[in-house]
Amino acid sequence: MTANSAKQLAKLGQYLQKFCKTTDFNRVMAKAVPVACTKNTCTVELAIDTEHANTYGTLHGGLTASLVDTMTTMALVANDSPPGVSVELSVSYMRPAAVGSTLLIHSEIVKLGKSMAFLTSEFRDKESGKLIATGKHIKHL
Amino acid sequence: MTANSAKQLAKLGQYLQKFCKTTDFNRVMAKAVPVACTKNTCTVELAIDTEHANTYGTLHGGLTASLVDTMTTMALVANDSPPGVSVELSVSYMRPAAVGSTLLIHSEIVKLGKSMAFLTSEFRDKESGKLIATGKHIKHL
Amino acid sequence: MTANSAKQLAKLGQYLQKFCKTTDFNRVMAKAVPVACTKNTCTVELAIDTEHANTYGTLHGGLTASLVDTMTTMALVANDSPPGVSVELSVSYMRPAAVGSTLLIHSEIVKLGKSMAFLTSEFRDKESGKLIATGKHIKHL
Amino acid sequence: MTANSAKQLAKLGQYLQKFCKTTDFNRVMAKAVPVACTKNTCTVELAIDTEHANTYGTLHGGLTASLVDTMTTMALVANDSPPGVSVELSVSYMRPAAVGSTLLIHSEIVKLGKSMAFLTSEFRDKESGKLIATGKHIKHL
Fold this sequence. Notes:
The structure is a homotetramer.
Chain A: H1 3-21, E1 33-38, E2 41-47, H2 61-78, E3 85-93, E4 102-112, E5 116-125, E6 131-140
Antiparallel strand pairs in A: 1-2, 2-4, 3-6, 4-5, 5-6
Helix pairs in contact in A: 1-2
């Protein structure tokens, strides 16, 4: 890990810690654990519990979307960019992820322009590596 | 209100009541209040509180997406359709909605095919009628 | 029709006429015929011919997307707005539209902000009124 | 190149050749040149000419979308999958690509399920490697 990646990872950890104490909607991300940062990316993991699930006992699609929103924003702030304002967010749902499994969520700044940021997140099952969902997020800076 | 709309509205109310008692992620929709149902649509309102907000004190984009997911599914089940499985969801964010204001969320079954359902949600400020966000949701039945 | 709508319709007609003579990609919209304009909307129709079709003899999904792009831009320029630059475009495909049928394409400026425009198009079969496709288009102004 | 990749590349070439002779909308892809195939991917290049451009002399956003549609479908058929029917297509536009430059378009089958295919395309400037646009395409099989 480069010195810069370590600094970014620490910054990401501080943000995620704030989510643990908040009473606003960011609390739903409270259990995400920082794993790695590189230039323009950050990775967290999340052990899926009932609080993250739908009626079928799998990752709730609304939480998937919420994680696309927040984790791509974490990629921005860990890279010293302003967080910006959401313009468009979309999620493709490929496989269910059951309570008890762990997600790896890898987010990336695909393009950072003067006024627009193009961001993506990939959700994989930590054990099998299988793709659970992908998301994209466009923010106005 | 037709007899059928009244029946649908009652059904919607029962589902939303279940959200009040759940510990799964559907709990984030607990305070949505059923307002109206017609064939292929349902409308709820939500008074925005801190628990629904981001750091800026406005509706959290992740919750907007979660509401697109759940409220379009409510439109399906209130119309006696199976809930299906999410394939794709997207949200366009047009204006912030502050804590203290009330949202009107109008969801619609745009097309119900044999295997695919095309659904939309519109989020408006109850007082001004201004558009806050729009969402679309594609489910596989 | 108000005087202003008539002025907008004339402007739309002039743009569409330019498409008839161009050798750039806008030529694929050449046969779209202006039908109506109101504040923030414009409607055109298109008789589907082989040149608009895929291998199955129905409206090509790539042309649907191209029409979302161009016809929402026509809604902007007919309303004296700058055309802007595309940021995101999406299309939901609901039903095929056969060669020989006619499309009504209704485009709307849903929100025109200082820097972002949110636009939509709806494609209907002219005879049956059935929804063929919907599109959204986000432009940076 | 494996024997299988060579077989896929030949198949892709045959499809693209058909586009050269067609009078339907697939003609707009006629000048795409097959470059490589691997399991679940295919890559083509396209020298941007006036026929592909908008009024500004850069790649037309409608053609970008049309290429997402067709080139992801080429990835399917080159991999011996049925072409399916479009459900949803979206494009994120990151940079203009001028007439005279060459695009590398890399398309991938991200997930092939029993009833749904999730596909993506990436458009890069061949010389600089810079990202021009990304697209996703969901088809029902």
